[in-house]
Amino acid sequence: MHYNLNKYFDSNFYCNKYNDIKNSIHKNNPLYHFQNIGYKEKREPCDFQIIDWTSYIIDNNLTNDIYNAKMHFINEGIFNDNTIIKYNNLDEAIKNFDYEYYKNNNNLKHLNKDKLLEHYINNRLKENKKINENRNLINYKYDSNNDLYSFNVESYKKYNKDLNNLSDDDLINHFINFGKNEKRIFCEPIKEFDYEYYIKNNPDIKLNDVNFLDIYVYTWKHYLYHGYFEGRTYNKNHKNTYKINNVPINNSVPINKKTLVIYVYYNRPGEYKNETNLSFFINQTIKKRDYVKDNIEFLFIINNNYTEVNIPVQKNIHVLKNKNCFDFEAYLTGIRYIENKYSNKIQSLYNYVMFMNCSCTGPFYINNNFWLKPFIDKLNNYTVCCTSILTLINNNSYISGPQIPGYCFLMKSEYINLLIKPNNIFKNNKLFSTTVIGHKKNKHDCIISGEHCISTVLLNNNLNIAGICNENLDYRQKKNNNKLLFSADRHPVFNYSLYKSIFIKNHWRIDNSSRDCHPVMWSQTKKDLENLNNMNFINYQNNSLDISLLSINNTGLVIFNKSSWSSKNEFCRIFADSEEFIVFPKSNCSKTINYYYNEKIIKRYVIEGIKALLYLNYKIIFHTRIKNPFNFKIPQSIEIVDNFSISNIYDSNNLGSDLLFPCSDFNTFKEELEHNKFDKSIIKIEDYMNNKDKYANNKYINFLTIYW
Questions:
Q1: Contact, 489 vs 521, CB < 8 A?
Q2: Cα–Cα distances in angstroms (integers) from residue 523 to residues 528, 532, 698, in the given order
Q3: How far is 489 from 388, CA to CA, in rounded Å?
Q4: What is the dihedral of CA 540, 544, 547, 548, to 10 degrees?
Q5: Percent of the chain with pLDDT over 70
Q6: CA-based Rg of the chain, rounded to a whole angstrom?
Q7: Rounded CA gap, 82 and 87, in Å?
């Protein structure tokens, strides 16, 4: 493959962007590396940040692949002045767009705002119309120790030959909207500027690819756009006071905006799916990562006030125990909590807010990549919200169009108020709330006015949405709806890698008589959960389980898959594992064992130990002081005794909650119980806590302690 690179390849950019080139045999000829290797790896030959790629792809009828668009940009010979003007920094120009000025000075009073902007975008190249009143650019100047570097029209024209055809007014307008972002020279070097001194005292400035005759101008431009703001000096007597005069104010509000994650958790009695999801999320986003580098603050909202999952104590982590409510109510509770804590609005504290609930599993990432980056990379001036995958609502009597699933979405904080604002939706329908985030009347209301209306409100406000599994399209245009599916995140349609979607929702429950679809990629999810947590789930054959107590109907429908279950056995075979129901093995009670429990809440490691004993046909006498210790139904093979007296001596007839088991396979566990010998399958929690490194690779123990 050949690309027309001689004119546009930037050796300095290429080597700086790809550090492996600096230390390779190609460091003296990076162009050769790109032409023979780099393009295959989709490396960039020069800085393309100045291009509005969305517009470029649409205008040239290209496939939605930015890298190929970049190569098209070069190879088709249109990398020229007009193209740069057309696609360069469109977002920045629109930011400075003065609707009233443009309308009154271009005889366009009959157009509304949207049409005015459309007119500008379609005509700016050929007509070069001004978008705002000329600004007095004498204000665009630097003042360092009484040195003034002000915009000068003649200098701007002199150093930017591609703009010679523009009038003085147009040159000013060009600089305002484009030039300063392109780092173009806008004034003459001052006589005191000593470029040799500047080069000598700033060895980080690379001049390898700079023509000798251009060094003076190149270093002056570096000072204008970098050196001045970094406090550098240009001669031995110069004093740069910029940093002294621009010291940030220190207060309780974070100076560097960051991301807030609001994670809503709730416990389902008789299940562990939500706990596993919360635990895995903490492991992937907190325990394995540097929170300072990631610049994330977490708010965990614990509905119903309890979780057995251990949430680390760190200064960037908040835990709010909350009454039970819908997730879209809890999202607002979280926002108000943070705003009250910092005495500031959410948009002033963070760049982004990630809204999540515990029904989804993730994040999945490789090579320690920053898990939020795929979401953030999808956002721009128009696209303000991103989820894992977009879906589509059709044939709904209340709402239709693209949908952001409510279980996981990242938003630019400045637009969150649109979702909180009352009377934004369903103004004349008393069935539903009139705000997206906030109080909900019932579950149906939460789905319709909450989840289904995130995208509706944003699109109605001329803002775009995105999914990291979806094409980069403008979903404000209804023609792009045909790229979306209602079933995109359901089985069997969802077939993306977990490391592409980052998060996944495995199960879609409706009630005890129905499910929306079969489990979504549960086998792969389970496998990756085991690998990433270095653990093994303890599994039982379905025919060994007592499913009579399972709170599910004997028959039910799987709506999207147009199937059903005709018995609890069949339901259990399809759904019990992915939804992590607590289902106890059958026991013939041929043996009896005492189990002593002295904590307030029955934790998972206790449940797993009891299940293992039942599987080995024990009857369990459960000694405790707790009234009704189980908040779900238990089999008759577990007999609760309301007393508690125990020594620290354990044997094959007496076990307790300060022990972990089974820490091995069932055969070893069974053999050690029968021989009253605890070497591998049963260990004291105290021993584990004091010797974690010793047990780090025991996958059974890692599973039993997954929530610790």
A1: no
A2: 9, 14, 22
A3: 9
A4: -160
A5: 82
A6: 32
A7: 9
Q: Where are the alpha helices (DSSP H) in 268-322?
A: 273-282, 291-294
Judged by average pLDDT, the poorest of 81-85, 322-326, 407-411 is: 81-85
Residue 484, sorted as left (phi over 0), alpha (psi -120 to 50) or beta, turns out to be beta
Strand 141-144 to strand 556-558: parallel, antiparallel, or no bridges (unpaired)?
Answer: unpaired
- pLDDT reading at 60 higher than 90: no
DSSP secondary structure code for residue 253 in this structure: S
What's phi and psi for 273, nearest 5 deg?
Answer: -60, -45
Tell whether pTM > 0.90. no
- Residue 255's contacts (CB-CB under 8 Å, 6 or more residues apart) are 248
Which phi-psi region, left, alpha or beta, contains residue 270 (left: φ > 0; alpha: ψ -120 to 50)?
left
Domains of the chain, earliest start first: 258-501 (3.90.550), 509-579 (no CATH), 591-704 (no CATH)
Cβ 479 vs Cβ 374: under 8 Å: no
For residue 381, the one-letter residue type is N
Spatial distance between the Cα atoms of 415 and 463, rounded to a whole number of angstroms = 9
- Cα angle 69, 70, 74 (rounded to 5 degrees) comes to 110
For position 246, what pLDDT does the model report? 53
Q: What is the mean pLDDT of residues 154-168?
A: 85
Q: What is the DSSP letter of 544?
A: G
| E strands present in 416-502 | 464-467
Dihedral (Cα; 74, 80, 82, 83), 10-degree rounding: 10
Q: Are 378 and 472 spatial neighbours (Cβ–Cβ below 8 Å)?
A: yes
Provide the residue type at 327 as one letter: D
Please state which of the ranges 55-69, 450-464, 589-603 shows the lowest mean pLDDT: 55-69
pLDDT one-digit tens code per residue, 419-438: 998 877 888 788 898 899 99
- 410 pLDDT above the threshold of 70: yes
User: Residue 653, Cα to own-chain centre: how many angstroms?
Assistant: 50
Task: Kindly tell me the burial class for residue 151, based on how many C-beta atoms sit within 10 Å of its own C-beta (0-12, 13-18, 19 or more).
Answer: buried
Does the bond joining 422 to the residue before it have cis omega, within 30 degrees of 0? no
